Amino acid sequence: MIDQLTVEAAVTDARLAAMEFDDAQAWLRARPTLTEPLAAEVWVADPTFSHVLLVRHRVRGWVPPGGKVEPGETPRVAAIRELAEEAGVAGELLPAPAAVAVRSFRSDWTPTLSLSYAAIVGRDEPLGGESEQPSKWVDLDETWESVFPEDRDRIRAYVRRLAAGNEVRAR
What we know:
This protein has 171 residues and is α+β, with helices and mostly antiparallel strands. 28% of the residues lie in helices and 24% in strands. The protein has 4 helices and 8 strands; from the N terminus they run αβαββββαβββα. The protein has helices at residues 4-16, 24-29, 75-87, 150-165; strands at residues 19-20, 39-45, 51-57, 61-63, 66-68, 99-103, 112-120, 135-139. Strands 1, 2, 3, 4, 5, 6, 7 and 8 form an 8-stranded mixed β-sheet that branches. The longest helix has 16 residues, at 150-165.
C-alpha cells in the first residue's frame, strides 16, 4: 500500500502534467487506492533541445532515467533520486510534470501510474550513475531501441513543445 502523502503528491502531479497518455486520468479516477509500484522518470533535454539523456536498461533498452517510487517518497523526489542514481546528474526538475501515463514495467506487474518530469541539463555535465546501465546523450531525431517505442514520439513532442515556448533556462 502506498502512503497517503505519496498518493496525494502523485494525484496532484498527474493533474498538473503537461501531457496525458493511456487515458491516465480516467484510469486514476477509477481506482480508489493506488497500488505499488508507482513509477517516476525524468525526460532530460539539453539547452538546445536537440538531445535527450537516456539510460541503457538491461531489459528495456534505452529509456529515460527513472524507477520505482520508494515508501515515504513523493514521485518528484523519486525522479530526482533516480536521475542521480542512474545518470549521475543532479538536475533541477521543471515545475510542472511533463506527462502522466499508465503502463506495466514487467509482465508480472499490474499496470501502474507513471509520472514523467523534465529537466534541462547541459551536455557538458559529467555523466555517471550505474556502470551496468550506461547513460548517454541521444540526438532527439535519432531512433533508439526501447520496449516502450511510443516514448520516442512522446518525449520528442514534449521537448519540441519546450523549445517552441522557450520558457525554460538551463541550470
